[in-house]
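Notes from hallway chat w/ T.B., transcribed later so I don't forget. T.B. wanted the structure written out for a chain they're using in a teaching module, and asked if we could keep both sequence and structure tokens in one place. Agreed to drop them here.
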Amino acid sequence: MQALDPLDEDGAATVFRDVILLALLGFVALVILLLPHVNPPETKTDDLMTPGNVIVEIKWPETVDADVDLWVKAPGDGAVGWSQRGGAIFDLLRDDLGSRNDLTAANYEMAYSRGVPEGEYIVNVHMYRNDTEIWPVPVYIVVSVKLSIEKPAREILLRKVELVRVDQEETVLRFDLNQAGGLLPHTVNNLYKSLFDTQRL
């Protein structure tokens, strides 16, 4: 039986160490290359891709336990609000009852349209209930238009109205949009037209 040469043993150990080291370095390089893909950087979310084309939102103070209702009307369609939540064009997405059945303190309602038909739009607010009896209740109204799903919504109108009693209905905005979804500034007014009363029939 032939004895092993100590030099051969050292050479085999060196080769084994080199192979293990190269495998380890390859694994580390692979992990470094994959790290950015495992936890990708957050994308910018400043402009939320909201549904709908004409977006109407109202908001009132969190400290006021009140039920303020948003009512909207699009050209050629009926009024949309809490008792008629959907129409051919607008849908009421949120009916806020104040602090009732609400996990957050925020008070807001919103309606979105499908498409931007040409003609007159009407936005009303109605004080349905105010348990806190804090008066007046300031309500802020924002109207935005979004012509394309890829683009963010563009605010076109902002108003504030103060409600001073239960069952008060105010026409906050009446305005026309043209065929391209542009606001016709000379049409903006707040000439009263009830939308809530039409639903009581």
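Follow-up for T.B.: The CA atoms of residues 83 and 199 lie 7 Å apart. Might be a good example for the class.
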